[in-house]
Amino acid sequence: MSVYDGRAKLVRAAKNLFVSWERTKEGWRDENSRQFEKKYITLLQSEIHNTQQAMDHIAVLLHRLRQECT
């Protein structure tokens, strides 16, 4: 699996998770829901974004390495 394939899988999984979370919030509107979102969902969104950026950087480095080794 290439870095881009892995990144695409991460993006799809994250999108599915956040769509499911939005559906869940429609029926769960209390302080516990807000705390859960603040503690887990918001942090997860940030971490996924950081991971995507890191994967992009790794892909660039791997491409450069392949060019230098051929």
Low-confidence stretches: none
Major sheet attributes: none
What is the residue-averaged pLDDT?
A: 96
**Strand fraction:** under 5%
Can you describe what's shown?
It is a single chain. This protein is an all-alpha fold and 70 residues long. The chain has one domain. It has two helices and no strands. The protein has helices spanning 3-27, 31-68. Helix 1 packs antiparallel against helix 2 (31-68).
Summarize this structure as a short list of keywords or feature phrases.
single chain; 70 residues; mainly alpha; elongated
Provide the fold topology:
Layout: H1 3-27, H2 31-68
Helix pairs in contact: 1-2
Question: What's a quick, concise take on this entry?
Answer:
Helices cover 90% and strands 0% of the residues.
